[in-house]
Amino acid sequence: MNVWIAPPKKIPLYLRLGIWFAERTAGKEMLIGRLLAWYPRAAISSGILEALIAHTEPGISPRLLKLVRLQASFAVACPFCIDMNSHAPAAQDLTPDEVAALRGQTPVEAVATFSQRERLAVEYARRVSQTPLKFPATLMDALTENFSEREIVILATTAAQVNYWARTIQALGVPPAG
Questions:
Q1: Which of 32, 159, 161, 176 makes the best surface tag, with the fewest CB within 10 Å?
Q2: Distances in Å between the alpha carbon of 116 and those of 23, 54, 87, 108, 111?
Q3: Do 155 and 86 lie in a common domain?
């Protein structure tokens, strides 16, 4: 993948501070932040989205959120997203069978280490990341039986956030951060 455009030569101070914070948090250079500096409103709104998205929430484990992020990353085939979402401790605790299921190489149902909630969340994230969007009534019934309304919103917005970043990153040709 080739970066289609170069970052602007001058980045406003307020954006440089945000980029510095993002890079410090990620421990990696965030080329996407620099590219978004071409349109500061997009940079600011993207930063706010990232800052406010669920990372630790009552009722939803960090592992479950990590599974949703990774499933969405694999579903949209975003190397940058896979890279960013696989370096956290919750992702490092995944078994090879679990990773194979997220990659679509093994049926999710065949992985005994996934809980029922994890299986449902992974399937939901996969469907949030597909085009066209299709949510069978059986899946939605199972979701509402196993998750609260608040938790379903968290799952949906977490998967959608990965989709936003994947499409923006791939549209600008940003390579994985390494």
A1: 176
A2: 35, 21, 24, 10, 11
A3: yes
Q: What are phi and psi of 73, to 5 degrees?
A: -60, -45
Cis peptide before 132 (omega within 30 of 0): yes
The string of pLDDT tens digits covering residues 119-173 is 999 999 999 999 999 999 999 999 999 999 999 999 999 999 999 999 999 999 9
- Sign (positive/negative) of CA torsion 97, 127, 74, 15? negative
Structural domain harbouring 33: 13-52
Residue 54 banded pLDDT, cuts 50, 70, 90 = confident
Farthest CA pair distance, the chain: 52
Count: domains in the chain: 2
